[in-house]
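Q: Got a minute? One more chain.
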Amino acid sequence: MNIHKKNALEKVYMTNMELSLLASGDGTEVIHHKLYAGARLAMIPEEGWTAMEHMYVLSGKLLYQSENKEELLEQGDSFFASPVNQHTIFIAKTDVELLYVTSQPQFHYYSNSVRNMMDLAVSVEEKDGYTADHCNRIKDLSMLVGEVMGLSPDELYILNLAAFLHDVGKIKVPNEILNKPSGLTNEEFEIMKKHTSWGRETLTATEFVDLVKAGVIVEQHHERFDGKGYPHQLKGEEIRIEAAIITVVDAFDAMTSDRVYRKGMPIETALEEIERNKGTMFHPAVVDAFFSIKDKIS
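A: Always. Here it is, folded:
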């Protein structure tokens, strides 16, 4: 018998949530989740995954979204699947605490593959002159736009990953190019442009199915609606809508963020620039969706 007083076996802090492994044995795990308002969890069907999964809400309000259902879960409500057979997203409408029980271990599924990539993404953005919360801003705004555009729970989950990790490929860009305060030469810009494909390669190398899917979107986030982007000069509907969302959000954040070598422009000026490039650089429907949430942009 093992008795643990106060302390969890292991704890992981992630963006907007804390995960505490309370018990583990014979493949079964009991995990305490503390989600802060706005945090999202996803359950997705995977080939070969046969686990029983059970969630019990201890406090707060948790919105449950599946492909054909939406319901608000509150204290005492629970969710059960054995196994998960459809894409499901849970959104914390308030701070939420819940117990999660699974018959197959997956605590380190959270704590290793995804967390390591997220830590890498943040370190890359800081090297590139952004603040540490740049990745979160891109993710949060992208999710708001995706919800307005009616993306499915599966699409929203992969968008969540891809938006946070969109620039992870910059890890392979030489520092003298990444941190150059003046304009890049043509040769340097050609190297910089490779970060989209390097990002896909980095995520594919994890062999983690969701990161592999996110990598496809990461590679496309500098494509343009008119076909003049990179790396593959895709145009219009050839570009994944998730990538088109990140393109708009990333451009907005880049324009309005203070960098070491320049001051960010006012929000209204950035919005005017996005509107001016609607239908050329940016997907028109994405621009419309982005403008519909501009009251949530600060």
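A: The CA atoms of residues 25 and 105 lie 9 Å apart.
Q: Perfect, thanks.
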